[in-house]
Amino acid sequence: MLAPAVVVYTVMTIVPVIVAVYLSLTDWNGFSTATFIGLENYARLFDDPDTTRAGLVTLVVAFFGAVGMLGLGLVYALQLKERRWSNSFFRTLAYYPHVISALILGFLWSAILGTNGAINNTLRDLGIGPVGFLFDENLAVITLVGVIVWAGFGFNVVLFVAGLQTVPRELIEAAQIDGASQRQINRRIVIPMISPVVTVAMVLNLVGLIKVYDIVVSLTDGGPAGSTETIAYLILSRSFAGTDVGFATAQAVGLMVVSAALSVVVTALRNRQDRAAAS
Amino acid sequence: MNRWRLLAAAATALVLSATTACGGAGGTGGEPGKTTLRMIVNITPNLTEQFWTGLFDLYEAKNPGVTVQLELTGTIEAEAKLRQDLAAGDPPDIAQHVVPTPETAELFVDLSGEAWAAKTPLYEEYAIGGKHYVVGVGEQIQSLVFYNKKAFAEAGVDATKIRTIAQFEEAMGKLKKAGYVPLQTAGQWVTGAQFTMLADAGVLTADPEWTVKRKKGQTTFAGSGYMRYYQLYESWLDKGFIDKSSLGLQYPDGQAAFLKGDSAMYIMGSYFVPAADDAGKSDDIGVFPVPSDGAYPPGQFGNMAQPYTVVGQSENREAAIDLVEWLVTDEEAIKIQLAADGNLRKGFAYDVSSLGDGVQAILDEAPFVIVKQGERQPVQGYAEELNTRIQSLFTGSSAGDVATKLDQWWDSQG
After folding, report:
1. Residue of B266, B269, B309, B279 lying closest to B78 (CA atoms)
2. Predicted confidence band of residue B301 (pLDDT cuts 50, 70, 90)
3. Distance from CA of B308 to the nearest CA of A (A)
4. Do B10 and A110 count as a contact with CB atoms less than 8 A apart?
5. Other C-beta atoms within 10 Å of B296: how many?
């Protein structure tokens, strides 16, 4: 019964990965015959300053983006866990950016935060100079993370609310009878009980953000001075767009390995914590 | 055994469906005598999807058996889109805005045998190893300074007197005092492109073989005329001649800021003219060639406008060549395309604004058009790297850093 699924998975996932790994060991330019060059492309990964910089930006975006999405999502979900019409409205509001294309969100925020955008024009009217949301190297990274968190935390809210609704009501009532405060209940009972959901959200967020591309293109286009170029952006806009497909594939394989390693590490850490809590 | 049969059947179905998918939507359509030509087109503020559809409606009306299907590039460059299509086994028939290089020439049909092709603009300049893979509608020139006439009048600057870099700097000083941002720029690709439009006119007019020499290691960015331009750009940022916050503008926003009159000068290609015409500002804007410390006027950095290539893997090669021939030789098609993007071609006049006349006059007086193609083509990725480096001047790098990093990058490209 598993055979069709195995075939589909093999053809659609395993074969492309094997082909990608092979291409990463060649000097393929995207159209002519590929020549095997061993690990040369992987050595270049560590020598190439653009890849190093983009790798760091990717890690910063993934880490702070995931922390922001998880933190904001959890706070929001704890406030909206009760079944009330107003909560449904606010949950929808939080989830709303997630259903819009990231490209459109990037353009939208670029129009709001750009030098001549709505916010800077208002600041100018107040006699305050433009804020470098998109033209200051450091602030542009913070802006990127902020927009990503805004766009993505609603997804976590949905996951967390679903998780919160599985927490037995009796446990919370018992804690309340024992005199526990809401903060203590959340910290000691609710959050530990939804930790598997948090783990899933964390892995999904990290893996998603490691590959972030579309919002970068539309919000900053990798600028200023390459300060917001992520690895995925570099692969698609620079390496793949040129004739360096072998190297681009090595970058992609590297990204896949980091992604997988992060997922494994996060899951292992959570499992260990869960086991420690249970014993 | 049954399991293996099932597996084989599933695999066969997958291979068949994949093969069908790879066949793509192109090729001769289901109806006999009908041909669908798939064409990658670059969408810009001037060359909109509506423009392309209207243009191809004309062709389809004259050629009832042919349908032209647009392949939009989305967020990537036309060349990357072509590569994606080829890698997916789904080649288009024609690519617009893709210029072959010695490395990619084999992907395209050699049009050397087509008599009509030899009469198209910059035909020889784009040859690779004596073969001609690309033809264009006209020429674009790019070493142009558009200026706000009102700002110049208020600052007491006479545009006709600006010929040298020193005169250009003096003008920027006066314009700043008059309350204008002297030189408009923007983020995205604009920063590096404007630098190229300015610096190439100086450096490559003095030495048209500079790029060939750089490839051979006979010169460097740090040790050549480019260094002066990095220093100039850095000093202009320090003096406030270029607003550092402009880096937070996208290309259309930078253009809009200049058209609105916030800034006094805008270095841009001839394709800025239609934007000024559409905004009804052409009569308020003048144009002069970029300043130079050498010969004046300098050569104009330029290129083939609307280049077309026929993809070698096209299953409709003859029909694709016919369409490209129509695009670059049919009088009506040429005029529509030239007018849409403010491009130029000898013998083809179209209704043009005073600003367009100004650009034509500059082309007429230019000693030559600097075309960075063939042997004179920089290494792949140079434009993007230069853009990043020029933007780094806004964020604290020095001119020396820019030159050193560009040299290191160029040398690392093997």
Report:
1. B309
2. confident
3. 18
4. no
5. 16
Q: Is A279 on the interface with B (CB under 8 A)?
A: no
Using the predicted structure, report yes or no on whether residue A173 has a pLDDT greater than 60. Answer: yes
Q: Does B103 touch chain A (CB under 8 A)?
A: yes
Sketch out chain A's domains with CATH numbers. 51-278 (1.10.3720.10)
Does B48 reach chain A within 8 Å, measured CB to CB?
no
Stretch A21-25: mean pLDDT, rounded? 93
| Interface contact B242, partner A, CB < 8 A | no
Q: B411 touching A, CB under 8 A?
A: no
Alpha-carbon gap, residue B189 to A228, rounded angstroms:
15
Q: Does A29 touch chain B (CB under 8 A)?
A: yes
CB proximity under 8 Å: A 61-80 to B: none
Model confidence pLDDT, tens digit, residues B346-386? 778 777 889 988 998 898 888 888 888 877 889 888 999 99
Distance between CA A47 and CA B219 in Å, rounded?
A: 24
Query: pLDDT tens digit string along B237-263?
Result: 999 999 999 999 999 999 999 999 989
A224: cis peptide before it, omega within 30°? yes
Share of chain A above pLDDT 90, in %: 43
Chain A CB contacts of B7 below 8 Å: 3, 6-7
| B2 touches A at CB < 8 Å | no
The values of phi and psi at residue B267, to 5°, are: -80, 120
Whether A8 and B397 lie within 8 Å, measured CB to CB: no
What is the pLDDT confidence band of residue B31, given thresholds at 50, 70 and 90?
Answer: low
Question: Who among B87, B245, B250 is closest to A110 (CB)?
Answer: B250
Distance (Å, whole) CA B345 – CA B324: 17
- The DSSP result for B283-341, as a single string, is GGEEEEEPP-SSSSSPPEEEEEES-EEEBTT-TTHHHHHHHHHHHHH-HHHHHHHHHHH
Burial of B228 per CB tally in 10 Å (0-12, 13-18, 19+) = middle
Read off the pLDDT of residues B310-329 as tens digits, 9 standing for 90 and up: 999 999 999 999 999 999 99
Q: Tell me the CA distances in angstroms from B190 to B105, B133, B318, B370, B371, one per residue in order.
A: 28, 28, 38, 19, 19
pTM, two decimal places: 0.81
**How would residue B27 be classed by pLDDT, with cut points 50, 70 and 90?**
very low
Give the domains, in start order, of chain B with CATH numbers.
26-135+307-342 (3.40.190.10), 141-303+359-412 (3.40.190.10)
